Amino acid sequence: MVEGLATRGWVCLDGFLDEAAARSLAEESLHAWEDGDFRRAGVGRGAERVIREDVRRDHVLWLGDETTGPAAKQYLARLEALRQEINRACFLGLFDFEGHFAVYPPGAFYKAHLDRHRGTADRVVTAILYLNDGWQPGDGGRLRIWTEPGRQDGPCEWIEPRLGTLVVFLAGDYWHEVEEARKTRMSVTGWFRTRGL
Ligand code: OGA
Ligand code: MN
């Protein structure tokens, strides 16, 4: 995985999390969703953050102390190990991770974008883990990633958001979008960050 990131800039790995761990994480997300703990995802950061239904329709719950159950804590520990491996192999100077659960209800999508806020460079590596047991072709909600850095045309890959699959890529380099989901689609999305470049 780390080698793929170092040599190619993006990588997709099925079964990054075993089924039991991924299911526990899915349950934590579902409980929080049913408790109404999520809010609509915005576009932009801080004071510039706005809701743009034409751009994205997912709902998010940031991982923080109160909202983080045991399964999420374990996953964060896995990511911490991954962060150290990436730093050893790629010298990216990643110092932490910020992430959230995401839910795409039926009909939700996220239009093509890069994961870096305008005028910032702190989000260096994106990591997305999917939590959907029994996801079928035809359920929509695939991640589409254009595989040539900086280009929103040319070759692309379609990734099914299946339970335990992890996708990692350089946040500022790879255009990507989420096609409309036909079933409720759950994931944990986050970013390894550097201290402002
Ligand atoms: C994001 C994003 C993709 C996905 O949250 O920035 O691009 O497959 N998510 O959930
Ligand atoms: Mn994104």
End-to-end gap? 25 Å
Strand residue content: 25-35%
What is the name of the CATH class?
Mainly Beta
Low-confidence stretches are: none
* Secondary-structure content class: alpha+beta
Number of domains: 1
The proportion of residues forming helix, as a percent range, comes to 10-25%
Global shape: globular
Name the strands of the widest sheet in spatial order. Answer: 1-9-6-11-4-3-2
What does this protein look like?
- Helix 2 (19-34) crosses helix 3 (70-90).
- The strands form two sheets. A seven-stranded antiparallel beta sheet has the order 1-9-6-11-4-3-2.
- The longest helix has 21 residues, at 70-90.
- The protein is built from three helices and eleven strands.
- It is globular and about 40 Å long.
- The chain has one domain (2-193): q2cbj1_9rhob like domain (Jelly Rolls).
- By secondary structure, the protein is α+β, with helices and mostly antiparallel strands.
- Manganese (II) ion binds next to loops.
Brief summary:
By secondary structure, the chain is α+β, with helices and mostly antiparallel strands. The chain has helices spanning 2-8, 19-34, 70-90, and strands at residues 10-13, 39-40, 59-62, 96-104, 110-113, 123-130, 143-146, 156-159, 166-170, 176-178, 185-193. It binds N-oxalylglycine and manganese (II) ion.
Core attributes:
Jelly Rolls, binds manganese (II) ion, four-stranded antiparallel sheet, binds N-oxalylglycine, 3 helices, 197 residues
